[in-house]
Amino acid sequence: MENLINEVSKYLVERKRYVSYKVILLADVYLSLAGSLVSLFFIAALSWSAYATVLFAGGVTTFLVFWLSGTSKNIIRHASMKSMGRLCFAILLSDILLGGVLFWSDWCLFGHHLFAFCLLDFLVTTVVLSGFRVTL
Fold it and tell me: pTM for the whole thing?
């Protein structure tokens, strides 16, 4: 078991100093999805299929937006804080796409609820991802 843990940690860490950008990308997607679910819990009580749709659509859109924008690179603290504008733009674009999915889905999340969800999701995800970047 200890050997397995050592092998996994060697795979996740590049050159023994920096974490791989693939791991950062997956952590960003996971934290963004967690922020989206927390935001959705506060806005509306929906069915489990709605939450599954948010997880799937949010996972796909967040992964594509973060991967295409390259926010998982430049993970050193000072470089990461300089690229907060790019990270915030990626979060905003991901929220707009997820809001579009929720708008055109079968669940009644319109108007003020949809706006409140997108705004709260943007704020929660920005705080969580900024905190994550600082702790690296």
Answer: 0.75
